[in-house]
Amino acid sequence: MAASVEKSALHVPSLEEFCQVLRDGLKSNFAEVQVSVVDCPDLTQAPYTFAAAGLCGNPRIADVGGPPYLVPLPQTDKIYNLLNIAEEVELPNAFILGAGAASFKAVGVNAELMPNVFTKGDGKPEVNHSYSAKIDPVTGGCVLEKYGEKHKTCDFALLANLYISEGRPGKVVEVRSCRRTGPSNFVTCMREALGKHFGAKPVGVGGTFLIQKGKAKIHVMPDFSSCPLNSDEDVNNWLKFFDMNSPLICQSVFVSRDLGFDLRLEHTHCFSHHGEGGHYHYDTTPDTVEYLGYFLPAEYLYRIDRPMKT
Q: Which pTM does this prediction carry?
């Protein structure tokens, strides 16, 4: 049965206004802040090594499935495919990045997914530079894998938050923030600033950022729990938390407010070239942390297979 798809237009501020709002918000939380409109760097190059060069061209975000499909017990029939998602968001020639859950059928266990796929369309083979992170059952450590290369699938499971564009070069907003002085993480600070400024006008954002210096609290999901996870405490006891080293390459999607679709307001996953990655929570070295990000506001939101019970 085809998944339900709900579509809503988002408020798209000018890049200049977008810059000003982020700048004002971040200054309350970081000692040093620079926000400006720049040409998007070539994201196919190191350290990003993405599947497409840019973030531009008909940008949109998708919120697929959701945590109710994971807890209290996983709904293992919830398998999706990024190529199908590109069709469902009306952009078959799409660059997709974000945060989700890997296909446990591909990996063999539950795992974090850092989706990064250029679907190409027109029957051309996709470019799949996705990563996944799982827990080694023997050591309890994080195992980071090149998901697309190893498993050769665009499938994912249960949930994902995705930023989708044509992957073209163009103008984006560059955000530099150093030395965190406030309590909010980098993404939450930007999201709350947008919510405060734009109020009832929903703004959706996607992009990437580097944690260039410092460390961050990251979780990796272990294999599915055999016991129901009925509370936040149960979930936190099940998740495996790590203090991971920079540099970390993060993929982030966030929205300033819910539109009545039971949205996940922010979701960020990261990978690295030193074997660490997973779900970003916040930096743990506020005095030394340095962030460098590139973002764009999206034009549309697609809510795909929204859980009826939350």
A: 0.97
